[in-house]
Amino acid sequence: MYFLIHNGTLIDGNGGEPVENAAVLIKDRTILDIGDEDSVKVPDGEIKRLDAQGGFILPGFVDCHVHMMFNGFRFENPLYTPLSLYFYEAVRNLEKTLETGVTTVRDAGMADYGVKKAVEEGLINGPRLQISVMPLSITGGHFDLQLKSGKTVKTSYPGLPESVCDGPEEVRKRVREVLRAGAEVVKVMTTGGVISANDSPEHPQFTMEELRIIVAEASYRDLPVMAHAHGSSGVKNALNAGIKSIEHGTYLDEECIQLLLENDAWLVATQLAHWSNLELLEDGELPDFSQEDARKVAMNSHKNMKKAYQAGVKIVMGTDSGIAPHGQNLRELGYLCDIGMTPMEAIQAGTKMAAELMGMGEVIGTLEKEKLADVVISKTDPLQDIKSLGNHENIVVVMKDGKVFKDLR
Length: 409
Hints:
By secondary structure, the chain is an alpha/beta fold. It is 32% helix and 21% strand. It contains twelve helices and 16 strands. α5 links the parallel β9 (186-189) and β10 (225-229). α4 (168-180) runs parallel beside α5 (208-219) and α10 packs across α11 (343-349). The protein starts with a strand and ends with a strand.
C-alpha cells in the first residue's frame, strides 16, 4: 500500500532550504518520491494520506549514545532490583525514546541481543538499535563495580559478558566475548567517569597496546569502536589507537582537537547528561564521590565543545539517556546550539551526521528516495525555535520503517 505525507514544510536533513507544500510518497518501508507536492506523482489505486497540517517534516532522529537498560545510576540498584524488572523498564524507555522522534539509537552498554531482537520482531515498540552489549573496563576502571569495601554489586546473566579485563590476552578474549554476544560496536572506557567510585574522569585507562588490540579485533569483523573518554590523555590514546568515535571528550585540548581532525574522527558531546547531572546535584541526589566531578565536567564540557565546534570537528547527537532521563533526547539539539551550531547544523548532527557515524548513512538520516521511511513531524518550526523539539508534545507524528508509531494530530 502507498502512503502519502503532505501539507507540510520539508527539512530533509541535507542542509538545504526547506521545501514548502512538500510531499513524501512511501511504499511499505521505503521512500519512493519526495519534493514539493506538484513534483510528486501520486499513483492510482489505494493510498493512505497523512496531513501534516502545516507542520515540519523531518527525518527520524538518531541518538548515538544511550543506555536503554539504565534508569539513572546508583551502585546499590542491583541489590534491590529483580533482573526481569530491568527489561520491563527498558520497554518503557524504548517507547519514550521513539515518542520523542528518535527512530535509531546506538546503545553504549547493557542492552543485549534479546532487547534488539524484541524491537526488530515487533514484540515491543522502540527505535532500531545498534548495540555494544558490555563496555570494557580495566580493574578499578569506570565499569569495574567492585567498591573499596571489596563488595561488588552488579547485574549479571547469561548473554552479558564480564566487563573487566587487563593485559593483551585478557583484553583480546573479552572483545571476542562481547562480539560473540552480538555487539555491533565495541565500547571501551579509556578514562574514568563521573559516577565512578574508584577513579576520576581525567584518569586514562588501558595501555596503548591494549587499545590497539581492541581496535584490531573489532576490525576483523569490520566493526567500529567507541571510546568513553573525558580526560585529554584518554582521548589522545583512543585516537592514536585508531578509535573513530569519542564519547564525551570533556577535557579535550588543542592536541586532541587536531587529532580528531587529522583522523576524521567523531565527537559525541552528550551535553544532556552533563546538565542533567547538575540538576541532580542541585536536588541533592548525587552521591558524595560524584558531586565535584559532575560540576567540573559540565562546565569544562560546554567550554571545550565550543572550541571543537569552532575548529570544525564533526560533532553528533548523543544524550547518554539512561544517565540522563529517558524521553528528553531532543533537548540535546538546543545544547548543541548553545555551543555554537545553527539550528540546521544541530538537526543534521541528530540526523544525517549521526547516521553516518553509525555506518547507516545509506539507509537513514535524511529524507531521500530509496531510504527507509523514518519520518518525524513537528508542529513547531525548529529553525526558528530549536528548543521546541525538546518538548515531545511538539512532535506530533513519528514514523519508523513506514509505520506510524505516534500520531497526536
